[in-house]
């Protein structure tokens, strides 16, 4: 069993917009399909005619439901619902990002209890293996990653990072080299 501690620090609003719009359109299609099936059953059982007969006995003079206009109204209301619901999801993503900036994000622990997770070389969440030339056990070292951010997951293992020219050879913005000055026989200095 392998435990991983993850922190959700940012939700991309653009991906929430795309995912939410597609999900809400799918829900709209499912809802319209269910409404069509229900209308088909109501129409076949002549429930509308029976209700109109009861309404005529009570005193109503005009009764009836046209399926075309009713379905159009249902589609328009569903499209309005898709737009509003998608906007609410994007707003909640922005709200999460603001709150996560203040609190550090939403931390949770995942447990991988699939058989063979240790055989695949997965390590517990508190340790990460990386290479170190000075380590005595085959070049491997372990370090605590409890308080590290999720950027380590994005950047990859530590051993795969290549040194940049500025970190390998010092600062890239060096001062120009000054020439040494030789003393003059008279006590002054002159430049070479």
Strand order of the largest sheet: 1-2
- Content of β-strand: 15-25%
Q: Report the count of strand segments.
A: 6
Q: Helical stretch count?
A: 5
The ordered H/E elements are EHHHEEEHHEE
The whole-number mean of residue pLDDT values reads 74
Describe this structure in words.
The protein is an alpha+beta fold and 192 residues long. It folds into 2 domains: 2-108, no CATH class; 123-155, no CATH class. Helices cover 47% and strands 16% of the residues. The protein is built from 5 helices and 6 strands. The strands form 3 sheets. Strands 1-2 form a two-stranded antiparallel ribbon. It has a two-stranded antiparallel ribbon with strand order 3-4. The protein is elongated and about 75 Å long. The protein starts with a strand and ends with a strand. The model is unreliable at 125-163 and 166-173 (pLDDT under 50).
List the helices and strands and how they pair.
Blueprint: E1 2-8, H1 13-44, H2 47-58, H3 67-103, E2 106-112, E3 127-131, E4 140-144, H4 151-155, H5 165-168, E5 181-183, E6 189-191
Give me some keywords for this one.
192 residues, two-stranded antiparallel sheet, 2 domains, 16% strand, single chain, alpha+beta, 5 helices, two-stranded antiparallel ribbon, 6 strands
